[in-house]
TrEMBL record:
Residues 683-750 form the DUF5110 domain. It is an enzyme of class 3 (hydrolase). InterPro entries: DUF5110 (IPR033403), Gal_mutarotase_sf_dom (IPR011013), GH (IPR017853), Glyco_hydro_31_AS (IPR030458), Glyco_hydro_31_C (IPR048395), Glyco_hydro_31_CS (IPR030459), Glyco_hydro_31_N_dom (IPR025887), Glyco_hydro_31_TIM (IPR000322). Residues 582-668 form the Glycosyl hydrolase family 31 C-terminal domain. This is Alpha-xylosidase. Coiled coil: none annotated. It comes from Anoxybacillus ayderensis.
């Protein structure tokens, strides 16, 4: 395998005069201990460490570095792996059941293959470092390879053709192809090579770049630290997600209310306004589960306060909202106002909890409250303290918190904390910047979790790093009311999903700029199928509540918010899948059809689970579009028209229609629309999209929707297998778990109603095309 000349080593390009890249040189020594292989080169030492048969970690450290990683990403510890070792003339071959790692000695370079011999990683340039502590590696990438992931990036689904930087940044200017970086850092890619997927995660908190402009290789550069990456063997895209989330953890189940419709504005400025808002939703019978309090609720933007004039009775407001089935979610920013009469500031100063320069002076930066200080979230006791402050909210019944500005964003030239500020001892902000927001959100999550005594907290965050999904949902920040931003939200959220952030969404209607009726309709339609569904609008722009543009638009918007609630049992089932496997509910087509090349670059259609495809309208005055259907037969959700897969069709989509397609044979659980998830379902409907012949399966998941009892078996899993044969459907139904559902499940057939239905061997009468399981 080593002979392949197409991967001949490339010269080191000294692109910048100031840079003097040093190759790490030849291997001088290698020592293996079970599953850890340590090697020494001329200018660096390194390790190949197998975490599992399908996960390997590579670390390379220049000799003089005293580097300690601060990355909070990885939560798994290595499992026992049997590694078969062979020493050869110019190197070593290390082999597990799923991975083969070849170490070439002179000069050092790696090649990593999966068990089928697909090349996953190969150094095509020596690993280099530079005096400033920067590291760089260059790996082969075939011209036809497709790259996904990288978290929250603009552009299309395939990330090739650009340089992407990881440095959490607040960007209000309109997001476009040149806008990089944004709020989150996910130094992780999923590569699809001829239908085989593998993953690579560079666990670097420093500023990093992925140069994906080249035809046959990519370069990863880190501004500091040792080279530290993990390779995931795949070969299926879902395997990669399982492997990646094995390493960095999976998302807990959100409370059901977090999946409902959320309404926000910067800001609903008074208690009265919030009450009226909720009241209007209820009079108009529009479903609603949460209302957000943006920065105006605070007393001059001091976190953990309410403005006495605007919000004199927060507790009764929260109470009123709950009676209406609505949660109140206040915003919490990291900046703490410098004000000697303000408790949080005084307390934090006394405890020495705010970020400082090396010489001991407090770092101060301007944010909404004016001059502010910033908690050092890298310290465990600061996180604990910060979490505890949230009893201010939880004591009055609040169960959800919105973290903003946690890149952290500062109103200065660099837009953030000075890189020279030190955290948790002597780690510079330059090193910890990308994880600051995640540590804040972790603090928030655990604080709430403790105070809510068994109830699931909901946290929304703008900044994040790999692993953020363990604590929060993510929204894509300050988009605008542009059609282009509806379109952009698809690949952005799809790649967040590929990067393990299953629970994400974009501001529906657009944040800045004035929206209009048509745009709000189209955005609400597609937003209803995003994992996180919130309408949010900036100060000074046209109101965009569902009724803002008159009756015609309002009715369609209402219909789609209701549709969200009808689909909730299915979406919740998919949330559970994400919780178990890391596979996101909203996924690119390639995740279901990796062998179908046509799917690889589709940015404007997506899958909800395995069997539902959404093809939204993202252009004005547009009532049709082209839809690609992968193999199999598909049924139009609205018209029941059937489509033969493996080709494209032009489909009609009048303003009130979001094109949705369900695969033949699919089973999908729906509920009746309701005003809030506070209302329990008495009946669910399992829509069975009949086919002539074949078998399909569905596992419906449910639990109490609010507590962690599901972790102890208090859930219901209904495994349903349907076999279609000779005009008969045979159902095999098995129920598992200790939770007693509030609903009964009725089957409704879509398409040809079978003449006979057999449930667990017993023939059942069909009434009005339906039966109860
Ligand atoms: O500097 O809190 O992205 O959602 O409404 C702006 C006010 C601060 C930015 C967030 C946006 C929020 C706004 N915030």
């Amino acid at each position: 395998m080593l002979e392949d000349t197409s991967f001949a080593i490339r010269p080191i390009d000294q692109t910048d005069e100031a840079e003097r890249w040093q190759p790490i040189g030849h291997v001088q020594k290698i020592e293996g201990k079970k599953q850890i292989f340590a090697f020494t080169c001329e200018r660096a030492s390194g390790k190949i460490h197998f975490y599992r048969d399908d996960i390997v970690r590579v670390t390379i450290d220049p000799f003089d570095q005293k580097y300690v990683s601060v990355s909070p990403a990885v939560v798994a510890t290595p499992e026992k792996v049997d590694v078969h070792v062979r020493e050869e003339e110019n190197g070593w071959t290390l082999q597990t059941k799923q991975l083969t790692v070849i170490i070439e000695r002179s000069p050092f370079r790696l090649a990593i293959y999966d068990q089928e011999g697909t090349l996953l990683v190969r150094d095509v340039q020596p690993v280099c470092f530079e005096a400033k502590g920067r590291m760089r590696c260059t790996h082969a990438l075939a011209p036809t390879d497709v790259v996904y992931g990288l978290g929250e990036k603009t552009g299309v689904l395939n990330k090739r053709g650009a340089v992407w930087t990881m440095w959490n940044t607040d960007v209000y200017a309109p997001h476009n192809l040149e806008t990089d970086p944004l709020y989150q850092s996910h130094p992780y890619m999923m590569v699809l090579k001829n239908g085989h997927a593998h993953g690579i995660f560079f666990d670097h908190t420093y500023k990093t770049t992925f140069d994906l402009r080249h035809e046959s290789f990519y370069t990863f550069t880190s501004d500091g630290g040792a080279l530290d990456y993990y390779v995931f063997a795949g070969p299926h895209p879902k395997d990669v997600l399982m492997q990646y989330t094995h390493l960095i953890g999976r998302m807990p189940l959100p409370p059901k209310w977090a999946l409902g419709y959320h309404q926000s504005r910067y800001s609903y400025e008074t208690e009265q306004e919030v009450r009226e808002l909720i009241h209007t939703f209820r009079t108009k019978q529009i479903p609603l589960d949460a209302v957000y309090l943006d920065i105006h609720y605070m007393d001059e933007y001091r976190v953990f306060t309410f403005d006495q004039k605007r919000f004199p009775h927060p507790q009764s407001l929260v109470q009123y909202a709950k009676e209406q089935g609505v949660h109140i979610v206040p915003i919490v920013d990291p900046g703490v106002k410098v004000d000697a009469e303000y408790e949080t500031y005084r307390n934090g100063v006394q405890k020495d909890y705010f970020c400082k320069y090396a010489d001991g002076t407090l770092y101060k930066g301007d944010v909404w409250p004016g001059t502010s200080v910033f908690p050092d979230f890298l310290k465990k006791k600061v996180r604990k303290w910060w979490g505890e402050q949230h009893s201010f909210y939880t004591n009055i019944g609040i169960e959800g918190i919105w973290n903003d500005m946690n890149e952290p964003s500062v109103f200065n030239e660099t837009k953030t904390i000075d890189e020279q500020v030190v955290h948790d001892g002597w780690k510079t902000h330059r090193q910890v910047h990308n994880v600051y927001g995640m540590m804040m959100t972790e603090a928030t999550y655990y604080g709430l979790k403790k105070q809510l005594k068994g109830k699931r907290p909901f946290v929304l965050t703008r900044a994040g790093f790999s692993g953020i999904h363990r604590y929060a949902a993510v929204w894509t920040g300050d988009n605008r009311s542009f059609w282009e931003h509806v379109e952009l939200s698809l690949p952005m959220c799809l790649n967040l999903g590929v990067s393990a952030v299953a629970f994400c969404g974009a501001d529906v209607g657009g944040f800045a700029h004035d929206t209009n009726g048509e745009l709000l309709v189209r955005w609400t339609q597609v937003g209803a199928f995003f994992p996180y569904f919130r309408n949010h609008c900036a100060i000074g722009f046209a109101r965009q509540e569902p009724w803002a543009f008159g009756e015609t638009y309002e009715q369609i918007i209402k219909r789609y918010i209701e549709l969200r609630y009808e689909w909730l049992p299915h979406l919740y089932t998919l949330c559970f899948e994400a919780n178990q496997t890391g596979v996101p509910m909203m996924r690119p087509l390639m995740m279901e059809y990796p062998n179908d090349e046509e799917t690889w670059n589709i940015s404007d259609q997506f899958m909800i689970g395995e069997q539902v495809m959404v093809a939204p309208i993202v252009r004005p005055y547009t009532k049709h579009r082209i839809v690609y259907f992968p193999e199999g037969r598909w049924i139009d959700y609205w018209t029941k028209e059937r489509f033969e897969g493996g080709r494209r069709y032009i489909v009609e989509a009048p303003l009130d229609r979001l094109p949705i397609y369900v695969k033949e044979g699919a089973m999908i659980a729906h509920a009746k629309a309701k005003l809030s998830t506070f209302i329990k379902d008495e009946q669910l409907t399992l829509y069975v999209y009949t086919m002539k012949e074949g078998t399909s399966t569905y596992t419906l998941y449910d639990d109490d929707g609010t507590t962690f009892a599901y972790e102890k078996g208090e859930y219901v899993h209904m495994h349903i297998r349907a076999t279609f044969l000779d005009d008969t459907v045979y159902f095999e139904v098995e129920t598992e778990g200790a939770y007693e559902p509030t609903w009964q499940l009725r089957v409704v057939f879509v398409g040809d109603v079978p003449s006979t239905v057999v449930v667990n061997g017993e023939q059942r009468a069909i009434e009005e095309a339906s039966i109860v399981l």
